[in-house]
């Protein structure tokens, strides 16, 4: 497996994964919308996307968005999207993508990386906690997790 950061010219690599990710969250399939959204985020330097390639196929991705802390005077990162194709789950791809995101945030000088997950997503919660994320608060239907980098 290889994990790499993609640029705007490589947006198509994750278009299908992003479309399936949206469908997982009960959005209608729309490959054109998915491709346009990913391309715009990358072209405008509004997000960072890492893709996992397994057996020559895009197997998963994560998308991070910047956020800022005035008090700490630094940029932090939100791991907003994480998706692993059903045929590639239980192979450590999700964990590898998360660890890549943590390393990226640390190298970028961030103080922390945060994410949210549904309160009923117990599998994800176990993974995040095993990696070292700490549960911060409970929102409506979601838990906020944060890790210092």
From TrEMBL:
**Matching Pfam families:** Acetyltransf_1
Instruction: Name the keywords, alphabetized.
Output: Acyltransferase, Transferase
Keyword NADP applies: no
Q: Which GO terms describe its molecular function?
A: acyltransferase activity, transferring groups other than amino-acyl groups
For this protein's source organism, the top of the classification is: Bacteria, Pseudomonadati, Bacteroidota, Sphingobacteriia, Sphingobacteriales
Q: Can the keyword Nucleotidyltransferase be found in this entry's annotation? A: no
Q: Which organism is it from?
A: Mucilaginibacter ginsenosidivorans
Tell me the protein's name: GNAT family N-acetyltransferase
List the InterPro entries hit by this protein, alphabetically. Answer: Acyl_CoA_acyltransferase, Bact_Acetyltransf, GNAT_dom
Annotated N-acetyltransferase domain ranges read 1-149
